[in-house]
Design brief:
Elements (H helix, E strand, L loop, with lengths): L5 H35 L8 E6 L2 E6 L3 H26 L6 H26 L13 H21 L26 E6 L3 H22 L5 H19 E7 L2 E6 L5 E4 L4 E9 L1 H5 L3 E5 L3 E5 L3 E8 L4 E5 L3 H16 L1
Parallel strand pairs: 9-11
Antiparallel strand pairs: 1-2, 3-4, 4-5, 5-6, 7-10, 8-9, 10-11
Helix pairs in contact: 1-2, 1-3, 2-3, 2-5, 3-4, 5-6
Protein name: DUF1648 domain-containing protein
Keywords: Membrane, Transmembrane, Transmembrane helix
Length: about 325
């Protein structure tokens, strides 16, 4: 980890500019150009237009405006969903490998969609019957090729920078007399930026599912399946109950799964620290980040970190992390005596 100072602030500003260029401004501009072209060509398309293709050609049809709506909604939505938490991380004086990974993946995907959909629109110009639309396979391949190429450029255009604060609080084990019952409990839930992003992400997919259903898209069920999957995923990560007692540390999702348990004899160390959700773990919810281990990250801020005897780490954002760490170490020492 690197302690934040004047020098690191300048490095973060530079990394932030690079990220904004390759991860927001360039793909955002290309998306807007794609939407503008599609709107310009809208009157030249058959109505309904071909919006889905199978092995035998067009097999799904919908309003002509489906193309610019999907291109703009998906493109701008995905870019903002990535950029906003990264900017919040930079504002806190942190930076991590997450932006360098997210910018290529998301911007490459956005370009693939924008180019593929725009070429599909262009291919239908002048047709009176959408069933005559040519196969879009080659257009998708062009989009994929450009997307991958841009992703590579976006990766190398950003610096390999990690800046975080050395703000761990050393704690000492609490003395717990033999026979004394002691426990610490807390219920934690996603809030703030993490909650907003979860709502935005689910809402974006839900809107897509509604649009596809409205236009009679035969594969709309796939989007509804994705909505259901995302709701289940959010439910498993939205609320956790955390408990420290004579059995060790336990964190359980409110739906019962996943569950994490660390027995007292597995605890090598415990400490309180401040984490940045994006900088240290790349986001919110249940996270895994090389170097930082597993994280149950509901927000940025105070957290309890447990180091196992095998070197693995578990970090959970809680209030009163110092007291939790002191109690866990005290229970461990009492059990070992």
């Amino acid at each position: 980890m690197t302690t934040t100072n004047t020098s690191s602030a300048a490095l973060i500003a530079r990394a932030r500019r690079r990220f904004l260029i390759v991860g927001l401004w360039v793909p955002g501009l290309i998306t807007l150009v794609a939407v503008a072209l599609q709107l310009l060509w809208l009157r030249d398309l058959p109505n309904p237009a071909a919006i889905h293709f199978g092995t035998n050609g067009p097999d799904g049809f919908g309003p002509r405006w489906t193309y610019p709506l999907l291109t703009g909604l998906l493109g701008i939505g995905m870019l903002l969903l990535t950029a906003l938490p990264v900017l919040a991380m930079a504002h806190r004086g942190r930076w991590s490998v997450a932006p360098r990974l997210l910018a290529p993946f998301v911007s490459g995907t956005v370009l693939m969609l924008a180019i593929g959909l725009t070429l599909s629109v262009q291919s239908q110009r002048g047709l009176t019957d959408a069933t005559q639309a040519p196969d879009v396979g080659v257009f998708l391949l062009i989009g994929v090729g450009i997307g991958i190429g841009y992703a590579i450029v976006a990766w190398f255009a950003q610096p390999a920078l990690v800046v975080s604060a050395e703000d761990a609080i050393a704690v000492t084990a609490r003395t717990i007399p033999a026979g004394t019952r002691a426990a610490w409990m807390q219920t934690i839930s996603v809030r703030g930026a993490g909650l907003a992003l979860m709502i935005f992400g689910v809402g974006l997919v839900l809107v897509m599912a509604i649009i596809m259903t409205t236009v009679g898209q035969s594969t709309a069920w796939v989007m509804w399946l994705l909505v259901a999957f995302m709701l289940v995923l959010v439910a498993t990560m939205f609320v956790f109950r955390v408990r420290i007692d004579a059995t060790g540390f336990t964190a359980r999702s409110i739906v019962g799964f996943p569950r994490f348990h660390i027995a007292l004899d597995e605890v090598a160390d415990a400490k309180a620290l401040t984490v940045s959700a994006m900088a240290d773990f790349g986001g919110w919810g249940l996270r895994v980040m090389p170097g930082n281990g597993v994280g149950i990250i509901m927000r940025s801020g105070e957290a309890l970190q447990i180091v196992r005897t095998n070197g693995k780490k578990l970090t959970v954002t809680v209030n009163d992390a110092v007291r939790a760490a002191e109690l866990l170490l005290g229970l461990r020492d009492r059990a070992a005596s």
